[in-house]
Protein: YjbQ family protein
Organism: Alteromonas portus
Amino acid sequence: MTNNFWHSEKITLESYPRGFHLITQQVESALPSIRHVEVGLLHLWLQHTSASLTINENADPTVRHDMEAFFNHSVKEELSFFRHTYEGKDDMPAHLKSSILGCQLTIPVQQGKLALGTWQGIMLGEHRDHGGRRTIIATLQGIAS
């Protein structure tokens, strides 16, 4: 008989400054029941349209700096054709960056741990100058031990 396991958790992240931030530890800390999952999936859904989730380098902070520099270069602020600027010059560019990177991740779980690669971490892309708290809905499913 299999032991199907489902768990959902709302994770509220404190406000981060604009840029890319490792949040792997916050996600893992919010889901202590993950240690009981032998095989499964963790789905993360960010409930915002001006931030994003991605998986990338977890060791060298210059990667996060370079990602921010690349996206700021690629998605310029104050373009004359932007209409959605009600909340400031970073408003529409934040929405574009969020759509490019996405607001969800699915990560395999094996033997009670996220099956991330050695140099991989979960990143929050904060694309607003003052984005505020961010909320993630985490859904963990799998076979429990």
Remarks:
- The chain is about 20% helix and 40% strand.
- The chain has one domain: 4-144.
- Residues 84 and 92 are 6 Å apart (CA to CA).
- The mean pLDDT is 96.
